[in-house]
Amino acid sequence: MRFIQTFQLYPFLDTVVSLAAAFVLGTLIGAERQYRQRTAGLRTNVLVAVGAAAFVDLGMRIAGSVEAVRVISYVVSGVGFLGAGVIMKEGMNVRGLNTAATLWCSAAVGACTGADMLAEGALLTVLIIAGNTLLRPLVNAINRIPINEAASEATYEVRLSVDPAATPLARERLVDALEAAQYPVSDVQVIEHGDGPVELVAILVSTAVSADELDAVVARLQRQPGVVHANWEVSTRD
């Protein structure tokens, strides 16, 4: 059998260590993604890390480090196509970029372990997890900072259709609800439609917006007395 002729114990044990390290490090990265219910969770990140490690290790076993470098270049481009599959566009929002980037980094971890650079792979894993966890509060803090309106590319509006008699109170509650959610209002427009409901349009100060948070605010406003309909919109400039 060809296997008996080519099998070498010590190189095989080296492969076992490389793939096992990729499995463990990929599990650490994937566990954080799974906890946050991302599209690519535990199993996907583990498979990407182990697969990258296997290809790089195979290249090194067969043709040495020069061929391994060539394999790594193909791994990078191949995982790029895989990451594109988790990126989705929903209306004006693009979701999945962070997940795709994490998959790309998981492949880098696998490539490190496949090249017998376990310490580097472990360091990269720590940095990836830190980027996905420790930087989250900083991102939220930055998103809350109002930005220059001239530089803003999006305008967010919260719209209420209310009974004419409830207009003053509804306007006050609209501003209070948005301010309580830390979305300052730059202006509130009152649009009358004859004898029909009055439309209140709250224009937010230019800042980053969480769709889930704004949905929750709109849902609370919808339940207020006199409110016929509530929604929010976003428009962009070229």
Q: Percent helix among the residues? A: 55-70%
Which structural class do you get from the secondary structure elements?
Answer: alpha+beta
Which outline best applies?
Answer: rod-shaped
State the total count of DSSP E strands.
6
Radius of gyration, CA atoms, in whole angstroms? 26 Å
Question: What's the number of helices?
Answer: 9
Strand order within the widest beta sheet: 4-5-3-6
Write down the overall mean pLDDT.
84
**SSE string, helix = H, strand = E?**
HHHHEEHHHEHEEHE
Total of domains: 2
Distance between the termini: 67 Å
Biggest sheet statistics: 4 strands, antiparallel
Approximately what portion of the residues adopt beta-strand conformation? 15-25%
Query: What ranges have pLDDT less than 50 throughout 5 or more consecutive residues?
Result: none
Subcellular location: Cell inner membrane; Cell membrane
Function: Virulence factor required for growth in low Mg(2+) medium and for intramacrophage survival. May be involved in regulating membrane potential by activating Na(+)/K(+)-ATPase.
Transmembrane segments: 12-30, 42-62, 68-88
Organism: Stenotrophomonas rhizophila
